[in-house]
Amino acid sequence: MKLIKNISIIGFILFASITSAQVKFEAKVSKKKLGLNERLRIDFEMNQDGDNFEPPSFADFDVVGGPNTSVSNYSRNGHRSYNKTYTYFLAPKKKGKFTIKQATIEIDGETYKTFPITIEVTKAVKKPNGNTAASDMAEENIHLVAEISNTNPYLNEAITVVYKLYVSEEIGVSSNWREKEIPRYNDFWSQNIDIKGLNILEGEYKGKNYRYVILRKTVLYPQKTGQLKIEPLVMDITAEVRSNKFDIFGRRLVTKVPKEVTAGSRTINVKPLPENGKPSDFKGAVGNFSFKVTTSKTQLTASESLQAKIEVTGKGNLKLFELPKLTVPSSLEVYEPEHKENIRTNTSGMQGSIADTYTIVPQYRGKYPVPSISFSYFDPEKETYNRISSDEIIIDVIEGPTAGNSNSEKVTASTKQNISTNTNTFAFIKTTSNWTNIKTEPFFKSTAFWSLTLLPFLAIPLAIVVRRQKDKRDADVDGNRIRKADRLAKKYLGEAKKAMGQKESFYLALEKALHNYLKAKLNIETSDFNKEKIENLLAERQVEMPVIEDFISILENCELARYTPITQVTMQNDFDKAAKTISLIDKQLR
């Protein structure tokens, strides 16, 4: 009896030791039923350290936080306890029942998996995530605000949108926030202003002191009149709300509350430019500008050249209107102008200058007037139209041939001569021939006859071979897509290749080629071009992110290259990269 008792005790001890050494790896969720506006916490726990942790695919959720890793390891009375946890915070995308599949990890060379978990998502609830006090605290003390400089601008008048995140001093925000929805500026020309670092500032919001950071700055130029909508910026953040509990070291515990904040959509009322007093030569310039027309010289000899420059300087929509054209007498040969821009964009809009430089080559001696040129713009601050006119410029060609019409006017009667008549006026006409008879053989049964007869039969095998090659080529879907993409790249980049070596002309042509390609493939207008919209549209059409990033970087190079020294090698690299990127986009577009 005593032996049986001892065996039982030993068996119990062995069972306990085996049980304590058993590996555990499991998934736990904060709840299995939640509202559409709630957040789900999922923990992957293990009692031994492992490698190569692979989370499941959260396809039906947005990951708004994590992975956060926590480890506890302690020993008490000879008993060692270890626990490691990977934590994710998820936001459901839609209502329904969804299954979170298995996670895997390797522990001591063995692969372990969690059990799948089914989650039911219902309609939005009034008090999300159950912790009413912490949730209400976060709701009252975090605000995402879109501050607009002018909600009632004129057409093509600059406005600025600044996105600020206000956080009360009573709570905190973890660093794992992300932009869930990026604002779209349909019917606006837009440009983002770079922000160097997120500096914490202090200010007031609705009469209360807050800390805030500036997340985005964007300059907009409305391209349509009427009520225009600015889509909201939506962010997922994790608020850190202090609780009334303390840890063993006396530090206040923090409750983490996942939260979605939005700046809300905004409506801009865009006024049309007044018709009263609008000049006939007005071409859409809005702002405050100066205008001048200059020439590199006013006196020269024929076959020499000079440059005439039409320049607008100031603040306004410099990239969105055309300069007036140069008109000169027909005796002056004029070449296509070279367009140059020196523009910087800040929160007050575009500032700088644009210019068209014409090369003029006179053909004859004389004095030639370059007529006065006028430029009109609308000043939104004074709400008036202004017209600036240049002075007439006289180009004096001091040496060179005289125009033919000038010589003809100096012919006098004394220089006229009598014309003697010739009675043999038509002597050059030949009235006899030296034709000879040619012996011809009949066409029927001739070599030419048989050749033409047999030619269609000989062409049949050739046509069959050509047809088979064409069918084979048509069946090669990938090959056709590659060839089409290469042709498209060559088509749009042809002008840029011609301008290789001329920095301004090359990058202007390259940027125009990229824009024209997007207009052709994505059916968007020039006013819609901004980096965020291009990125979103290409991503929606299933273009890979590295290719999108290359395309955006080329556009940025085009903008920067106008103001920085560029070598021939750099131009060739940018051209090759643009051709490759256009080809890849055309192959990946769906």
Automatic annotation (TrEMBL):
Domain of life of the source:
Bacteria
List all membrane-crossing ranges: 448-466
UniProtKB keywords: Membrane, Signal, Transmembrane, Transmembrane helix
Check the UniProt entry and state the signal peptide residues, or none.
Answer: 1-21
Q: Which InterPro entries match?
A: BatD
Name under which the protein is recorded? Protein BatD
Originating organism: Winogradskyella endarachnes
